[in-house]
Amino acid sequence: MWNKDFLLGVATAAYQIEGAATADGRLPSIWDTFSATPGKVLHGDTGDVACDHYHRWEQDVDLIASLHVDAYRLSISWPRVMDAEGNPNRKGLAFYKRLLKALRERGLKTFVTLYHWDLPQHLEDAGGWVNRDTALRFADYADLVSRELAGLVDAWATLNEPWCSAYLGYANGHHAPGKQDIVFATQAMHHLLLGHGLAVRKLRANDPGAQVGIVANVGRGTTNGGSAADRRAAELFEIQHNNWVLDPLLKKQYPAALWELWPGAQPMALDGDMDIIGAPLDYLGINYYFRTNVVSDGAHGFTEVPLAGVERTQMGWEVYPQGLYDLLTGFKRNYPQLPPIYITENGTASDDKVVDGAVEDPQRIAFLSRHWTAVDSAVKEGVDIRGYFIWSLMDNFEWAFGYERRFGIVHVDYATQARTPKRSAQLVKRFLADRARRE
Ligand code: PNW
């Protein structure tokens, strides 16, 4: 797997790194509103400045190139490139054109996500993803961006992690817009997926040379309980996390078990929607972080019971590389239509220590190497995996956890915006230099 045909990259997202929240006519997004609402984000942190990447992008392109990675995954900020009437914001578009050209000049492949959670606030004010019209607005946005940036992108992704947008945004309220109603969440998911399908048509028409896909976060669910109900609970966990998104995309239907879990929460769908949603994909992006242990809740669902004595990260997430192997091989078994896969995110937050001026992150180094082994094993089992992106290039705004949780292989000192490659980044760089020598 470790040859230059298997892409190794680093990933970021617009709201998490760009800052410049009001520059050049950028409109507010739901994350500006959410992070400015007291109690929503740890320490009241916001993305107003973040890593100031909007102003420091040239230096950041140098940084990415210095790692010798093959590819860079970024996202476009919808409220930066389109005004409330749907007209282009030329300054915002020019930023991404400059950035993508610079990446291409360095020989980097570009993976561009259209929606990494920063919905324009004016669309949320009109109902957000619960409103079917947002799917149509998303297709307009995809149309604009793919006409403007055609030829500069190797692989488009429509959405990043629709599960997070729908469930964390509209059911448990941990993410923007902070709504708490499962009926909203299932409707939001349907419109996210519909928006995806409509956007796929625009991307293919406007940029025929690029790959078109979507990115889903997947979680492994297991149980330490002994009953059949507990085993069913673990299945339901995965149905709720993974199949809620993957079945519509790859089987053109929602898993029926969802409506046992959430009676009465079926979304309103129109004739033809599932065919739009299930349009063929060139690739599927998979983001994997951890395993969740569950038992039966005694009714039709599951309850999480954290396992004791396992290794956890700065997020409290269990380190469980086996889960990535289990999921990848399971998808190959269960989805005849499974397209080629890129691991579009994997990585860990850790509490790094500065020792003699170097940033030491031993937990991240072990995490990455164990997950690479899991991916390698899945490739050997015949799963078609074409690349792997580390989340993240650099420390950034970790959503509800603000700046306290650090996922970067490059350390960011937010007071000075100094970027310092951590030990993990040095290892990645050395690994890729060795690979280049072998080729
Ligand atoms: C992903 N969960 O978010 C996102 O794509 C990134 O922007 C983010 O920084 C990264 O993973 C680390 O969190 C997730 O609760 C957030 O299962 C929450 C979950 C999964 C992914």
From TrEMBL:
What's a single GO BP term from this record?
cellulose catabolic process
Keyword Hydrolase in the entry? The reply is: yes
The protein's enzyme class: hydrolase
In terms of InterPro entries, this protein maps to: GH, Glyco_hydro_1, Glyco_hydro_1_beta-glucosidase
Q: Where does substrate bind?
A: Q16, H116, N160, Y289, W391, E398, W399
Q: Catalytic activity annotated for this protein?
A: Hydrolysis of terminal, non-reducing beta-D-glucosyl residues with release of beta-D-glucose
| Keywords, comma-separated and alphabetical | Carbohydrate metabolism, Cellulose degradation, Glycosidase, Hydrolase, Polysaccharide degradation
What is a GO molecular function of this protein? beta-glucosidase activity
**Recorded GO CC terms:** cytosol
EC assignment: 3.2.1.21
Tell me the active site: E161, E345
Q: Which family does it belong to?
A: Belongs to the glycosyl hydrolase 1 family.
PANTHER family linked:
GLYCOSYL HYDROLASE, LP05116P
Q: What is this protein called?
A: Beta-glucosidase
Q: Which organism is it from?
A: Pseudoduganella ginsengisoli
